[in-house]
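Aim 2, interim progress. The first record below pairs a target sequence with its structure tokens.
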Amino acid sequence: MLIGAGVVLIGLVVFFFGDKFGWLGRLPGDIRVEGRNGGGFYFPIVTCIVLSILLNLIIVLIRKFFG
């Protein structure tokens, strides 16, 4: 139930404040290759690393205070 509540909370934040996170996914180091015919490839590697670090810090803090 806690995981479900967390997902709902994240969804509400993205729904109401999604325009504030415009920088997310456009960090320096993200790979973007655009094709000539409108196709392309996009892999947000730096964004994935930043989110991974933030989520790990949150999990460590939760375990420290509630574990």
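The second target in this work package is listed in the same format:
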Amino acid sequence: MNGAVMSVLPLAADLPAPELDAFGQDPWWVILLKAVLIFVILVLLTLFNIWFERRVVARMQHRVGPNVHGPFGLLQSLADGVKLALKEDIVPKAADKVVFLLAPVIAVVPAFVTWAVIPLGPTVNFFGHQTPLQLTDMPVAVLFMLAIASIGIYGIVLGGWSSGSTYSLLGGLRSSAQMISYEVAMGLALVAVFLYAGSMSTSEIVAAQDRLWFGLILLPSFVIYMISMVGETNRAPFDLPEAEGELVGGFHTEYSSLKFALFFLAEYINLATVSAIATTLFLGGWAAPWGIEHVWEGANSGYWPLLWFFGKVFIFIFLFVWLRGSLPRMRYDQFMALGWKVLIPVSLAWIVAVATIRVISLEGNIDRTYLVAAIAVLLVLTIGLMFVGEKKAEEAPVEASEEPHDAFAGGFPVPPMPAGGAVRGAAAPLTFAHSSGGRTTVTAAAEENHE
């Protein structure tokens, strides 16, 4: 079945089979130049993405957006970077200064390192030397990307903890719980890619999509990855670690000047990184879209694949911006329930289905019609169980204590929990007495009822 579909809908021409032995053979100056070019591209891409996000959101909200600094406001991001560099650098008294200074560096370095194993194109003539448009590759390159991405969490957690601020600490804890939860779903979404490609090398995974992109073959994995990458990057509507209505500014509340700029840089580079990973693993990487290679034979050779690769990356970046301008922020418990109760169980069921299909495809002893029907029923049941409502136990109202409350009884910077545990639901209405004898009741929704 898959073979018939792949022969009818080829999305890319036959790509050259990569050889891992070709990596690590470049002269030192080629490796150094590649690393410098990747760094420069990512910095320029960050400046462009900030401008692009502002312009797109402004257009969605019927505003003008940046339009003063440079043509179309293109230099606005550069002006913001200079402004941050010239701002006063403040370190709180209660901060752990060493960790406070190292946290932004720990957050931003993994964002750059991940791009070392992302293929940007085929083998090209690089200043007279034949080399792949990729810094390096390895048999477990995708696991390397996941491992490096998980290190960035330490920068955020340590930044929130070392600030000596309650809101920063809570923002760091939120971010760590969020990123760890959604990394589980993201990793499970990639397992199906490993099973289908038969490799964890990024260049080999791109070559395995020479007939049909994995985003179509493994559509559930693609959807789960796209949801997980939004949660992984702390972007709206999943930007709960930086919820200004609850946590002031989140884990970087106490940061300023260049240290804040590093956190900002890490966020936007991670935005491009998860987009590049999605492009590599699900959209054929640097391969030209369907039909182009049949009209133009050189579409997948030379430096032209850079155009296809970054074109696909910008599609994902536009998706991030579109979500930010369209959807409201989720509640934290809803967001965590989505990750643990929906994405992870569906991912596990889908992995079982993909593994079963691959085994049957290799052995061919069972009728695929009955197999696909059984897997479809399994997926429907799994998704249906996600929507079965849980009966909420009725909680007895807790009477507020009239005794004086010590805000620092639990130790600084974490305040103690309210009496009776965390408060759920809307806040209790407040009643104010007037000098005229009347009363005004204000609910959590700011509705006024005059008695």
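Residues 20-290+299-331 form one domain. This observation will shape the mutagenesis plan for the next reporting period.
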